[in-house]
Design brief:
Strand order of the largest sheet: 2-1-3
Shape: extended
Helix content: 55-70%
Order of helices and strands: HEHHHHEHHEHHHHHHHHHH
Structural class: mainly alpha
Largest sheet: 3 strands, antiparallel
Length: 451
């Protein structure tokens, strides 16, 4: 009998030890899976950022030509600029000046660029005009002309100017083109390539920060001067519309549904549909926006107003769901205390409950806006992939957006040049989104301290 009891106790202790060992193994295995999952996630993020930075950082440096531009009257055959004289009205002077500028625009400014390039080249260097002009960006002539328009007294003088080198010249200098390829596979002729190397060696071509990437609009005729300013302003207008419309509508809807709406089948149906809308693919919102805002309300195609309205529809479910979750998280004791002190239900919600949820609502709003900022598919369906070479001054002007601009550059046929620009545009977009998140974190910390 005694031996039987001892055996039973020993078996029980053994089962307990085995059970504990299994639990410890399971816990270690779970922790191991967690560590591996986090490491994989961080690894993929690191690979993504490393790849984007590796490709994008070189695009922030660009090749510039340092040339002596001579406004030679023999090449620029035009009468002197009109001078304001007594008896000449402002309108007459303006008309005369505009006529002079039109004549300037009709001149062949490539002759001036060619003369400056030949002056910088070694004496007697053999290269024809067409090959020589492939070194400078095509819009360099506009910059040279605008300099004379701004200061007509430059006629007959020689000035030092910094002009953009062409995209092909920039590729050649940065090594984006395989130098061992034959002439038939090169984008520049052999004399042009050799002259670029000479210019780089003697300092006529140098590398500088690519201000045009941030300060210019997109360009197809002059790829080296293509920039993100138009797309950035288009995204800014759309985000402004999203914040102005989605935040008050979303927060107001969530407050009504959570605090005031009667519990019925109708409100249940609304809640289910809002939750489902959050999972609808964004391209569906693009189809809805094209049908409603473009075809029905006749809003301008490619306008930030149409894009902002579509992104508002897409962001609303996120804000409503997040706001309702924040309201549900408020302790019932706070509501009861407010009502017990004689506050009305409206006062209870807006004076006591809502201020507590501000940090969560703000975070959800910023996340929703940041998500909308990166959306591309719905904008493509409302025509925001059109080529727009201007900065939108109002929400009704034609524009594009940063993610769409990235999409367009990614498909550009000049892959050697625009692959880096695409990564640079992604960096700008990520910087924009990180800035929004940083603002959200700052405001949230401030609101939490006040709460």
């Amino acid at each position: 009998m005694t031996n039987t009891v001892l055996d039973t106790a020993a078996e029980r202790r053994k089962r307990v030890r085995d059970g504990l060992a299994r639990r410890h193994r399971t816990e270690k295995l779970f922790r191991g899976f967690g560590v591996v999952a986090i490491a994989l996630a961080l690894g993929f993020v690191a690979i993504l950022f490393t790849d984007v930075l590796r490709k994008g950082v070189p695009a922030f440096m660009q090749s510039n030509l340092h040339l002596e531009i001579t406004y030679d009257p023999e090449l620029i055959k035009i009468e002197p600029a009109p001078v304001r004289t007594a008896g000449l009205s402002d309108a007459e002077f303006h008309a005369a000046n505009m006529a002079w500028q039109r004549k300037l625009a009709m001149l062949n400014w490539n002759n001036v660029i060619e003369a400056s390039l030949r002056k910088a080249a070694p004496e007697g260097y053999e290269i024809d005009t067409r090959q020589l002009l492939t070194i400078a960006e095509t819009d360099a002539r506009h910059e040279v002309r605008e300099r004379l328009v701004a200061d007509p007294s430059l006629m007959g003088q020689t000035v030092q100017m910094e002009l953009l080198a062409s995209a092909n010249a920039d590729n050649w200098i940065k090594g984006n083109i395989d130098r061992s390829l034959g002439d038939g596979q090169q984008q520049l002729s052999a004399p042009a390539r050799a002259l670029i190397d000479i210019f780089e060696e003697d300092g006529t071509i140098t590398q500088g920060f690519a201000w045009s990437l941030l300060s210019s609009v997109d360009s197809r005729s002059a790829p080296a001067s293509a920039g993100l300013l138009g797309a950035f302003m288009g995204s800014l207008w759309m985000m402004l519309i999203v914040v102005v419309l989605a935040v008050p509508i979303g927060v107001g809807s969530a407050i009504y549904l959570e605090e005031f709406a009667p519990k019925s089948r109708l409100t249940d149906l609304i809640e289910v549909n809002i939750n489902n809308l959050a999972a609808v693919p964004s391209i569906v919102f693009g189809l809805l926006g094209a049908a409603v805002f473009i075809n029905w309300f006749r809003l301008p195609i490619s306008a930030p107003l149409a894009g902002g309205l579509v992104l508002t529809l897409m962001t609303l479910p996120t804000i409503i769901i997040a706001t309702r979750a924040a309201l549900k998280g408020v302790s019932p004791a706070l509501r009861q205390a407010a009502l017990g002190m004689g506050a009305s239900k409206t006062q209870m919600v807006f004076h006591h409950v809502l201020p507590v949820t501000f940090p969560s609502i703000l975070t959800a709003t910023i996340i929703g806006v940041a998500q909308a900022l990166g959306e591309t598919a719905p904008l493509l369906l409302i025509g925001m992939n059109a080529f727009v070479a201007s900065v939108p001054g109002t929400p009704l002007d034609q524009a594009t957006a940063l993610p769409v601009q990235i999409y367009l550059w990614q498909g550009n046929e000049n892959r050697n040049f625009f692959e880096a620009r695409t990564s640079a545009a992604i960096m700008v977009l990520l910087a924009f989104m990180i800035s929004l998140n940083a603002i959200a974190i700052f405001l949230r910390s401030r609101l939490e301290k006040r709460a």
